[in-house]
Amino acid sequence: MNFPDNLKYTKDHEWVRVEGNEAVIGITDFAQGELGDIVYVEIETVNEELPQHEIFGTVEAVKTVSDLFMPISGTVLAKNEAIDANPESVNKDPYGDGWMIRVNMSNPDEVAGLMDAAAYKALIGQ
């Protein structure tokens, strides 16, 4: 499994890549592996300001549906439109083409409370 060192991680298996005052968010390689083949991603929170830990969408796999949680508070600027037509990109490239949302962070200090790659690996027993 792949856990890039330049990302931050949550106990709910989301990752965050900070780009200035914005953050790109998706689910981890571990999460997509546990879910199995992803068939649909629903995100209807674009332009909404959401607090940390709020649900921003759902991901549907063949056997289950899982909520997606905001790792940091902020306004959802955009969703990855490409995953509407190709949800399998979340399985194939969770940190690249399979990203889910872009957020304008309302409290960048929250990033410090997220896990680094080593702590996330320890959480999942890697």
| CATH level 1 class label | Mainly Beta
How many domains make up the 3D coordinates? 1
CATH superfamily: RNA polymerase II/Efflux pump adaptor protein, barrel-sandwich hybrid domain
| Amount of helix | 10-25%
What name does the CATH topology carry? OB fold (Dihydrolipoamide Acetyltransferase, E2P)
The secondary structure category is alpha+beta
What is the rounded Rg? 13 Å
What spatial order of strands do you see in the largest sheet? 1-2-3-9-8-5
Give your account of this protein's structure:
- The protein has 126 residues and is of the alpha+beta class.
- Helices cover 18% and strands 35% of the residues.
- The strands form 2 sheets. It has a 6-stranded antiparallel sheet with strand order 1-2-3-9-8-5.
- Strand 1 (8-9) and strand 2 (14-19) form a beta hairpin.
